């Protein structure tokens, strides 16, 4: 059964702009994931591509230079450590080893060692028989994946071939167990991205098991829930991830990166970032080293940060709102958006009115919800602390796409309510079990 | 022009999403007003200027009552959500064209103050204010509900000054166009359908309730041995189907609930019309009863289609426990 989402304004200023390589920023702060420790010391010199982290996750220096300090940064999702590297004048790449993979296990280990988020996805969905390349960017302003599909067609086809080949070979399994491997690859492209569709058609022509599917450009079209049910017709429940349904979902940039990694051996040190917003004079897509501070990105895009009020890492619907311009971009952040303070509520580019009225029970939030929840009933149950009703309404199934808040005519912050309700629900479940 | 924007960035924490659809309660209410406009125009043609003046008076007084209530209770004015205007307009549509103004003002007072604001304002009202007030007015000023002859009358059939449901002699064509006695806005089916088509195309109302309601009325009448089409065309059934049964606040919000609501309201309407001989107020009572049952219907619909297949999840959880 197809799951429908809501249509957003496809307001993409940068869908025609080319990728600009950001000049090496003065200093970068490469985030270290929680549970890992930096393996470099203060004052040490590192080259671009050197490993700077010890632990199960791999992090690499994204510029070459001197490690200035290892500081703790207060991010939107809590504090984390970051290695601050002051870039030197002549950027040098580390002597990297081109990875080799013979089978599935070594392939996943190699991708994980590169520091790319795709490693974890491969690990989770290692038994997958379908690969979906998620080229749908349903949220406003995001164009990095679109640009990647236009630019890196060759890399994507090489990456698909690599994944299809290596995910089917396993040394760890007994001979009697048959490994299916990737049987089919789908490239999902939003129906209005015609150029990307044409580029992907070329990719599919080279790969025998690959088809390009055009999907409605509704939000949240790129979520596991909607991709799996709309592309593969597998019946997925909101509690399940794509990996549970034996579907491997990767972004085009990740596929392209895997191909380039196995060609050159340069680990995951840079990514495409869309810089946009009404304060940005030249909205653009930049290839920036991971850990570049937001201020450097915004400065290069001629952004006037003085009258700013909203600073968002990620898309308009699910991104993170941050307050510090010096925060670094992480490995999974695809956009930096900055918006000015509107002169009046309801005016300005975003037209967000702060006036909240009573719920008029129009049921639009329930219609918009891809997980088929009823946010207005959940809100009521949460306000009345009605735990029996909360248990029946299942706020834990929320995938956090923000559609309910977007469509609400009474301008209620339903997404926030759902998050709180899920917490309360989780607390209730904990008490029982 | 002086720009009062701050010179230093003041970043604030927001919760996602950071952008919202360009819709609001007042926009929905404006759509409803536009959807009611064709009927207003035809009522002006059929009953003359007094119909227009009565409608305008009802709209103005309802907004006035709302404003006064907000002033007295020191609430923030909710007049700009335009729900009072919609209530006043629908209330006027169910009145005879020569209804006296002061009685109409009392009617809008009952609608806006008693049945909406005293319940807690728009969104908290249990009854549809226009319907409830019209019913109260019917019992208060029963003798004043004398439906006038339409100015534009059918030449070949002599009208007898009774509403179509009572007389039972009006032709389908007359009722479709509205050349019959009745409430000033509810007689013309074609105008109501035009407005309903506008609302449907703007996605303001859904088809579930109207279809369930009209279908039930038709089937019930056919079973009871009455003329189904006549029952639909007469007595403001179409107004009820498209504008009263699809009111957001007082009807269920689940799809299944909407269908149940429509079927229940339709059958109750027929029961009151056929067996209790209430051609004037039967439908209104039926809708009000269903308004009360809205929460029950929604819960019933939720019980039939549970959220996110909880049965499967519990099975999965028990499986997980076993594997552990």
Based on the model shown, name its key terms.
heterodimer; A: 433 residues; alpha/beta; OB fold (Dihydrolipoamide Acetyltransferase, E2P); Rossmann fold; Ubiquitin-like (UB roll); 4 domains; six-stranded mixed β-sheet; four-stranded antiparallel β-sheet; 13 helices; 20% strand; B: 324 residues; mainly alpha; 60% helix
What can you see in these coordinates?
The complex is a heterodimer of chains A (433) and B (324). Chain A contains 13 helices and 16 strands. Chain A is of the alpha/beta class and 433 residues long. Chain A folds into four domains: 25-90, OB fold (Dihydrolipoamide Acetyltransferase, E2P) (Beta Barrel), CATH 2.40.50.100; 104-264, NADH-ubiquinone oxidoreductase 51kDa subunit (Rossmann fold, 3-Layer(aba) Sandwich); 269-353, Ubiquitin-like (UB roll), CATH 3.10.20.600; 364-432, no CATH class. A six-stranded mixed β-sheet of chain A has the order 1-13-12-16-14-15, sandwiched between helices. Chain A has a four-stranded antiparallel β-sheet with strand order 2-7-6-4, with no helix packed on it. Chain A has a four-stranded parallel β-sheet with strand order 10-9-8-11, with helices on both faces. In chain A, a hairpin with a 2-residue loop joins strand 6 and strand 7 (78-87). Chain A starts with 18 loop residues before the first strand and ends with a helix. The mean pLDDT of chain A is 83. Chain B is mainly alpha-helical and 324 residues long. In chain B, helix 1 packs parallel to helix 3 and helix 2 (49-72) packs antiparallel against helix 3. In chain B, 60% of the residues lie in helices and 0% in strands. Chain B folds into two domains: 26-151 and 172-203, no CATH class; 205-303, no CATH class. Chain B starts with 24 loop residues before the first helix and ends with a helix. The interface between A and B is large, with 63 and 45 residues.
